[in-house]
Automatic annotation (TrEMBL):
Domain HhH-GPD: residue ranges: 72-224
Entry annotated with the keyword Ribonucleoprotein: no
Superkingdom of origin: Bacteria
SMART domains for this protein: ENDO3c (SM00478)
Key words of the record: DNA damage, DNA repair, Signal
Chemical reaction(s) catalysed: Hydrolysis of alkylated DNA, releasing 3-methyladenine, 3-methylguanine, 7-methylguanine and 7-methyladenine
A matching Pfam family: HhH-GPD
Annotated protein name in UniProt: DNA-3-methyladenine glycosylase II
InterPro entries in the cross-refs: Alkylbase_DNA_Glycosylase/TA, DNA_glycosylase, HhH-GPD_domain
EC number: 3.2.2.21
Signal peptide per UniProt: 1-22
């Protein structure tokens, strides 16, 4: 498996939209090797990757925030998810399990969260507070074992678990076939907009391995040039 160790990004990359300095930002050290592989193996990647310069996947390394953000973003567009997250994070002093548990349901609903997402977010915070998620062990666990642990938490399905693998653990070879954006991006870039099946997507992604996460990131960028930050 390619290395998933991390290196610090420039300090400016660690600033929030508000201008406040965030936790240290990390990027995967396999990114350049992945890009070279994808450019060599895939005609679409050869076209897409140069369009985005040095931009790449980044994480601030906070497991709770990453999972919370994935829950907030379920079933809505990237733009809507960002707007909702901005309103939600204005409520607590910081996005921690303890602070989420102190929030009033009415305030979270007023920020735009559905009743179901409020339940999911609270349950996530409870699991973290109780220590029933094994954060320290995740780094050394196989992808599927992590997914199995995460989907045991209420409101976290396979899609959310896969987003966690990509955006928090920065695993290099995740192919989130339940992601609407990935399927649309494959349709637009490989099939001239025609409908795409999961089988079609797997066939396309065969050339991406062992860097499906990286290729997926570039497919997302082809739909929305602004990288998702977590």
């Amino acid at each position: 498996m390619p290395s998933t160790s991390k290196k610090a990004a420039p300090p400016a990359a660690a600033q929030l939209a508000s201008g406040a300095l965030a936790a240290e930002v990390f990027t995967p050290d396999y990114w350049q090797d992945a890009c070279k592989h994808l450019v060599k193996k895939d005609r679409v990647m050869k076209r897409l990757i140069p369009q985005f310069g040095n931009a790449c996947l980044q994480t601030r390394g906070d497991a709770f925030t990453t999972l919370a953000r994935s829950i907030v973003g379920q079933q809505i567009s990237v733009k809507s998810a960002q707007a909702l997250w901005t309103r939600l994070t204005a409520l607590p002093s910081s996005m921690t399990p303890a602070n989420v548990l102190k929030l009033k349901v009415d305030d979270m609903r007023a920020a735009g969260l559905s009743a179901r997402k409020v339940e999911y977010l609270v349950d996530l915070a409870l699991n973290f507070e109780a220590g029933t998620v094994h954060v320290k062990a995740w780094e050394d666990m196989p992808d599927e074992d992590i997914i199995a642990e995460l989907i045991a938490i209420r409101g976290i399905g396979r899609w959310t678990a896969e987003m966690f693998l990509i955006f928090h653990l920065m695993r290099p070879n995740v192919l989130p076939l339940d992601d609407v954006g990935l399927i649309k991006g494959i349709s637009d870039n490989y099939f001239s907009g025609d409908p795409v099946s999961r089988s079609d997507a797997r066939e396309v992604a065969a050339a991406w391995a062992p860097y499906c996460s990286v290729a997926t990131w570039y497919i997302w960028r082809s739909l929305d040039p602004l990288p998702v930050a977590v």
